[in-house]
Amino acid sequence: MTDDQTLEEIRQRKLEELRDRAAGEEPADSTQGSPTEPISIHGAAELDDTVAEHDVVLVDFYADWCGPCQMLEPVVETIAAETDAAVAKVDIDANQQLAAEYGVRGVPTLVLFSDGQPAEQLVGMQQEAQLRSLVGKYT
């Protein structure tokens, strides 16, 4: 599968999520607890709501063109599925002001929120074990 095909599949999946959200349907994983898949964030208000709704949120500031971001994506998905932290993804190209607000100068940048406040920030590719340990400190 080519990168273009992969990006198109991601775009289609996101478009379906947005249509469901606009229609008022809740995703299947939005029951109690943390979601088992990363939440796409489209603006400061959505990020604020997500951080307020969950005790621990790991936010992945990424760019589609970023190689290390693509390598980190399966790790972030595993953290979402297997830990008590909610995971959110912010596309820095679509949310430049939000990225600037959190001091994102390079991607990937991960910001961990605990009890509504930024608690940790990591820049660059991270290992799954390191992220599990970081999340574990706050959950």
UniProtKB/TrEMBL annotation:
<feature type="compositionally biased region" description="Basic and acidic residues">
    <location>
        <begin position="8"/>
        <end position="24"/>
    </location>
</feature>
<keyword id="KW-0813">Transport</keyword>
<dbReference type="Pfam" id="PF00085">
    <property type="entry name" value="Thioredoxin"/>
</dbReference>
<dbReference type="GO" id="GO:0005737">
    <property type="term" value="C:cytoplasm"/>
</dbReference>
<dbReference type="InterPro" id="IPR036249">
    <property type="entry name" value="Thioredoxin-like_sf"/>
</dbReference>
<protein>
    <submittedName>
        <fullName>Thioredoxin</fullName>
    </submittedName>
</protein>
<feature type="domain" description="Thioredoxin">
    <location>
        <begin position="17"/>
        <end position="139"/>
    </location>
</feature>
<dbReference type="InterPro" id="IPR005746">
    <property type="entry name" value="Thioredoxin"/>
</dbReference>
<dbReference type="InterPro" id="IPR017937">
    <property type="entry name" value="Thioredoxin_CS"/>
</dbReference>
<dbReference type="GO" id="GO:0015035">
    <property type="term" value="F:protein-disulfide reductase activity"/>
</dbReference>
<feature type="region of interest" description="Disordered">
    <location>
        <begin position="1"/>
        <end position="44"/>
    </location>
</feature>
<keyword id="KW-0249">Electron transport</keyword>
<keyword id="KW-0676">Redox-active center</keyword>
<dbReference type="InterPro" id="IPR013766">
    <property type="entry name" value="Thioredoxin_domain"/>
</dbReference>
<keyword id="KW-1015">Disulfide bond</keyword>
